[in-house]
Design brief:
This is MBL fold metallo-hydrolase. By secondary structure, this protein is of the alpha/beta class. Helix content is 36%, strand content 21%. The chain is built from eight helices and eleven strands. Strand 3 (31-36) and strand 4 form a beta hairpin. The radius of gyration is 19 Å and the shape is globular.
């Protein structure tokens, strides 16, 4: 992870854009933290309890303030399976009820997959969600005079994915709603049409800085190019294919080359899969 300042006292912990590996402790995503005079707000907690010390070291290189809160934005492994490490050290775990529900649904399968990658580096990791999840879609938070909003604007990569909005600095921690520099992944549990609509709703915040779930932080225009435009393209093109009764294999083959998105890392690995999954989802809606 590389620490990057994105505003005064606001930092992104930028993970690699490669796949999960033993060496990266399965953290191939971005985390973040906010420094206040009453302590640190950590955004997401990594994939295991054993990655906790690495995150602590990154925070300690910037501030001596303790980590008081851990805010979970999503349900994928690297967003919350490190919660127990910080809870044992006194941090409060915060998440929306929507997010916690999805965490519970996928915890076992995530641990099985992580075991294959991490082996001994998964030891001691037990699922721990926020004990008092927030039963709302918007929650105003304040620590040390720093105002934050934990928001659900719609489902995206996972059902229940949330955002953390810092209105004073105009920084948005977008979680897996936004991918920059690398192509997003549409999975069976993703909601492609909702994801597109949620991105559109996010744009209304007009953030100056977007910290994506994956890739380097950027501005809203880059988020639109790398994520919003791709989501629009997937839905538009596949809906057109369905309107014309084009079979799935022909649709995927015809759209496999998309020059406007080929610069995104992992395009060759994921574009065909994304088209296939988008077709199946949109076909099922009809």
């Amino acid at each position: 992870m590389q620490t990057q300042a994105v505003a005064k006292d606001v930092y992104a912990l930028v993970g690699p854009t490669q796949n999960r590996t033993y060496d990266n402790y399965a953290i191939n995503a971005n985390l973040g933290f906010i420094v206040t005079h009453e302590g640190v707000v950590l955004i997401d907690s990594g994939a295991t309890v054993q990655s906790g010390p690495l995150i602590e070291q990154a925070v300690a290189a910037v501030t001596a303030q303790p980590i008081r809160w851990v805010v979970n934005l999503g349900s994928q492994d690297h967003r919350w399976l490190g919660n127990a490490y910080f809870a044992e050290r006194g941090a409060q775990i915060i998440a929306l009820a929507r997010t916690v529900e999805t965490q519970g649904a996928y915890a076992d399968s995530h641990l099985v997959r992580l075991r294959e990658t991490l082996g001994d580096r998964l030891e001691g990791t037990l699922p721990l969600s926020a004990p008092e999840p927030i039963e709302a879609d918007r929650a105003a938070l304040d620590l040390g005079g720093v105002s934050m909003e934990l928001l659900w604007l719609g489902d995206a990569h996972y059902v229940g994915d949330a955002l953390l909005w810092l209105p004073e600095s105009s920084v948005l921690f977008a979680g897996d709603l936004v991918y920059l520099d690398r192509i997003l992944g549409v999975w069976p549990h993703s909601r492609i049409r909702d994801w597109r609509d949620t991105f559109d709703a996010m744009e209304e915040l007009q953030p100056k800085v977007v910290v994506p779930g994956h890739g380097a932080p950027g501005d809203l225009a880059k988020a639109k190019r790398d994520t919003g435009d791709y989501l629009d393209w997937l839905v538009r093109e596949v809906e057109g294919a369905l309107d014309n009764w084009e079979p799935i294999d022909e649709t995927v083959e015809r759209l496999a080359d998309a020059p406007e998105f080929e610069h995104l890392e992992h395009f060759d690995d994921w574009n065909r899969r994304n088209l296939n999954q988008t077709y199946l989802q949109l076909e099922a809606e009809r």
